[in-house]
Amino acid sequence: MLDSLVTSKTRIKLLLKFFSHANSGYLRSLAKEFDESTNSVRVELNRLADAGLLVAEEEGKTKVYKANQGHPFFQEIKNMVSKFLGLDDLMERIVKRMGEVEKAYIVGDYAQGIDSGTVQMILIGKNLDRDYLDFIREKTYEKVSRKVEVEILESDPGDIQGILIFGK
């Protein structure tokens, strides 16, 4: 869906990152997260900032980007991204009910802006409620017509390629 409207895969990843939740990021971390060159991420960040969709704030010597909530199309883009992901509210509920979730990532096709019908997530935390996870997988398919695959890790390996939807 989004890939037919937006031709740049990097731009899709940035829109998903910034408009799915109140995320922020800086150039090098985004390039690492998306496994893209800093140059390609910089070009798209500049395009989105020039269009007014992103705002950049200086934090020391680092420029931190986030969605411009004052943009006239902010809510429409946020709604489109939420519909694309189809799991916005559900993800929040899963994270809140699972226990001590430190981070949650969307990985795989959805993180690349492709609706394959299967959403892959990685939850990082200790003592997470695996019984609830089994229950919610069934309910998720009923609600959003997408299969959800969740991998649980106790600690962040530091090399996860995806979109951070919860945590820092």
Describe the fold and architecture:
The chain is α+β, with helices and mostly antiparallel strands. The chain folds into two domains: 2-82, Orthogonal Bundle (Arc Repressor Mutant, subunit A); 86-166, Beta Polymerase, domain 2 (2-Layer Sandwich), CATH 3.30.460. Helix content is 45%, strand content 26%. The strands form two sheets. A four-stranded mixed β-sheet has the order 6-5-4-7. The protein has a three-stranded antiparallel β-sheet with strand order 1-3-2. Strand 2 (54-59) and strand 3 (62-67) form a beta hairpin. Helix 3 (27-34) packs across helix 4.
In short:
This protein has seven helices and seven strands. It has 168 residues and is α+β, with helices and mostly antiparallel strands.
List the helices and strands and how they pair.
Layout: H1 2-5, H2 9-20, E1 24-26, H3 27-34, H4 38-50, E2 54-59, E3 62-67, H5 74-85, H6 88-98, E4 100-107, E5 118-126, H7 130-144, E6 147-153, E7 162-166
Parallel strand pairs: 5-6
Antiparallel strand pairs: 1-3, 2-3, 4-5, 4-7
GO biological process, one term: regulation of DNA-templated transcription
InterPro entries: ArsR-like_HTH (IPR011991), WH-like_DNA-bd_sf (IPR036388), WH_DNA-bd_sf (IPR036390)
Organism: Algoriphagus formosus
